[in-house]
Design brief:
Elements: E1 2-7, H1 20-27, E2 32-37, E3 50-51, E4 61-62, H2 64-75, E5 87-98, H3 101-110, E6 113-117, H4 126-131, E7 135-138, H5 148-159, E8 192-193, E9 196-197, H6 207-225
Parallel strand pairs: 1-2, 1-6, 5-6, 5-7
Antiparallel strand pairs: 3-4, 8-9
Helix pairs in contact: 3-5
This protein binds S-adenosylmethionine.
Length: about 240
């Protein structure tokens, strides 16, 4: 997968994609991540990327021209219907589709090329959304000052689901949300720590019992903290 992040603050990303699973995926050639400065695509001599809002009001709005130019540079077109198959142009926005694990999985499965647009100020000129963007995504019901932290969240969540990115020692199958439940509790050595013991069942080597305990605990945690996950789309439990 090729991911291109468009931002006016490329320095923000520093080494953020150079650790753990993402670093390993990059080294294995599973993903390539490039960060581009939107300013470099501004044609005017002041390299302006934002301007005052039509209709008045507070704040600035990110201009469409540099973003169109960046997408055209990367994809050879700004015609959404002419994007190569498997291409997603994502706009990060609190008004977008709330990001859930199943959506992340779909993106990881279906995407070959992704351009991620990070907004700032009051947001991005709506014509970008209307014509360039295939997916407008929100990472939650709160407002960040910029799309950059959201881009890190999206890329991290997605890259770890790419085939072979996690390596053989771990799997995303039992992660929270993957099977509709939160994950079960985990313990490691020492078995006894400051008077707190690891549940006996995890020490007895009986895999069927361990699986049953994990399932029960996952259900217990989900019921306690995220009952909404147990309620189906039609409202049934
Ligand atoms: C201050 S916000 C703009 C908020 C916008 N005026 C609104 O109320 O919907 C600036 C940028 O941060 C990013 N952003 C803020 N909150 C976000 C969220 N929850 N999910 C994804 N991106 C977000 C977007 O790229 C947005 O354009």
């Amino acid at each position: 997968m090729q991911i291109d992040v468009l931002t006016i603050f490329p320095e923000f990303f520093g080494q953020v994609f150079d650790f753990g699973i993402i670093r390993r995926a990059k080294l294995a050639g599973i993903v390539e991540i490039s960060v581009h400065d939107i300013r470099e695509f501004a044609a005017d001599k002041h390299k302006m990327t934002d301007d005052r809002p039509f209709g008045g009001g507070d704040g600035m709005v990110m201009k469409p021209e540099p973003i169109f130019a960046a997408v055209e540079h990367l994809l050879g077109t700004s015609d959404r219907d002419a994007y190569p198959p498997g291409t997603k142009v994502v706009l990060l926005s609190p008004q977008g589709h709330p990001l859930k694990q199943r959506h992340v999985k779909e993106l990881a499965d279906e995407t070959e090329r992704m351009i991620v647009i990070c907004g700032r100020y009051e947001g991005v000129d709506e014509r970008v959304n209307e014509t360039l963007v295939t997916d407008e995504i929100s990472i939650g019901d709160y407002v960040l000052s910029g799309g950059e932290p959201a881009a890190v969240v999206l890329v991290d969540a997605m890259v770890r689901l790419l085939p072979e990115a996690l390596g053989s020692e771990t799997s995303a199958e039992n992660d929270s949300f993957s099977n509709g439940l939160l994950d079960c509790p985990h313990y490691t050595r020492p078995a006894e720590f400051r008077g707190m013991s690891v549940p006996e069942v995890l020490l007895n080597g009986n895999h069927a019992e361990i699986e049953k305990w994990r399932r029960e605990k996952a259900l217990e945690k989900t019921t306690k903290f995220r009952k909404d996950l147990l309620i189906g789309e039609n409202g049934e439990m």
